[in-house]
Specification:
With 533 residues, this protein is mainly beta. The protein has helices spanning 2-25, 123-126, 128-133, 349-352, 426-437, 500-506; strands at residues 48-49, 55-70, 87-103, 106-121, 136-138, 148-161, 164-169, 194-204, 207-214, 238-244, 250-256, 266-275, 278-289, 294-299, 316-328, 337-346, 364-365, 375-376, 380-382, 389-391, 393-404, 409-421, 458-469, 475-488, 493-494, 516-517, 519-532. Strands 2-3-4-6-7-8-9-12-13-15-16-21-22-23-24-27 form a 16-stranded antiparallel β-barrel. Strands 10-11-14 form a 3-stranded antiparallel β-sheet, with no helix packed on it. Strands 17-18 form a two-stranded antiparallel sheet. The longest helix is centred in the first third of the chain and has 24 residues, at 2-25.
Length: 533
Amino acid sequence: MPILKTILLTSAAGLATLSAALAADLPAAKAVPIEYVRVCTAYGAGFFYIPGTDTCLRISGRARAEYGYQTSYSRNPGSGTGPGDLAGFITRLRFNVDARTQTGYGTLRAFLRLDAGSRTGIPTMHSGTQNRIGNAFQATGIDAFGRNQNYINTDKAFIQFAGITAGRASSFFDFYAHDFEFIASTMNSNLGSTNLLAYTGKFGDGFTATLSMEDPVFRRTPLYVPGGTQAGATVGPAPVYIGYDAFGAPTRYAFADMIQRSRMPDFVGTLRYDSAWGSAQLSAALHEVNTGGFASAAGGAETAAVAVTPDRPETRYGWAVQGGLKINLPFLAPGDTLYLQGAYGEGAQLYTGYSAYTGSYIGNTSSIQGSAFGQYFNDAVLNPFTGKLELSTSFTAVASLLHYWSPEWRSALFASYGELAFARGSRAAQGSYYDLIGAGPGTPGTRFFALNQVLRDNYRVVVGGSLIWSPVKDLDIGVEGIYTQYGVQSGRVLDLSKAPFQNAAYVNTLANPVRTKTSEDVVQIRARIQRDF
């Protein structure tokens, strides 16, 4: 047994030695290198290199919760015209992805931003504007219709390279763009999402200039149509007179298709200066206003010469100019900033931003459900006598101050004023059409034409302020309140909040005077909690 044990141990040792010798002759397997994520410091905090590339990436986002309350002065009964919602909620999310690569031509950048949310309640909380532009859909239940909206928007998706910006981005025309506001109530251009192709040149000493071709769809306000359904998918036709009687009164008319087509982009040019004291920018825009062709004619046989009309109303070109200043005020407190901005336009209301609060992409609207007064925003009116589009004019001005009471507490104070005026005589020309078709009480063309709200030159003024607490970095807890008044620039209009059906009867009687007013007032308060990361 001792001899057998010795033999077995000797054999095992020999096999081990032979295995080690053979293994030494085989190629050694190398360990796979571990590539760690590296911080990228070239573009600021938060960037890191995508493993295996020289591209730096930053991922960020936002969560926001808001609650708002708005006054209503409607006295109408019923759900359709009666007092509207007084309160509402918003919950919103945002994701940002910023990818940058250094090249021989400068930085190559791609930026993505997705916004989504749920909104309920008063119109300025659930935003009919987003329904009209296709960024949102709303519930269809009887208690939720027009009050509950889900919202999603490809807010940004652009590429920047060698001075070129291409994709979906903010309009280069914009400057202040409600920078210090919750409710975005002041009147100014703020087109956060549009499709564009632009080139920016740098001239040194802080000067840059940009020429941009931008999507006209996002700058259109519907043309005026008498009795048209401008809030929906279709727009009624507008009349053009083609026949007159012996006394010169119109007797026959054709209808023009008033839906605007995309035939050319908007052209935007800016000159900007940035310095330690702040920024200044001059913006200009050219915007096409067009219609379709003529449809069928209507009315009686004319006894005078027939007016000659073109194939379609002549295309017009709206335009807008804007100037803005951003002034840093560190001598008041670190971070204090003042914005001053003004804009003027013809046939380009969305460039002046006149409808920013009450609603865009609609011919007329009201900030209160069941309101007594609605503003008209139409970029142009078709004159039925000449067959030509007559452009509206608008101007806006805004001032906004941000002040830090301490590093954790800040406030914004802002004020804005704007006016919109229709072409001289365009309202009376449209009123003649209602005479021709024999429209009922309260419409243009009756003896109460002067009290009708249609195509009335109007104005709006807004003042507001906020108080925000930031107990930790990138967390905001605050409240904002605004007061706004809007009304007609001259004369009075029927008060539609007080028994409108009685008003319709009053216009044909002398026993009871109609009830009128000149303006409407709105107050809104909104609370916000927001976390950026």
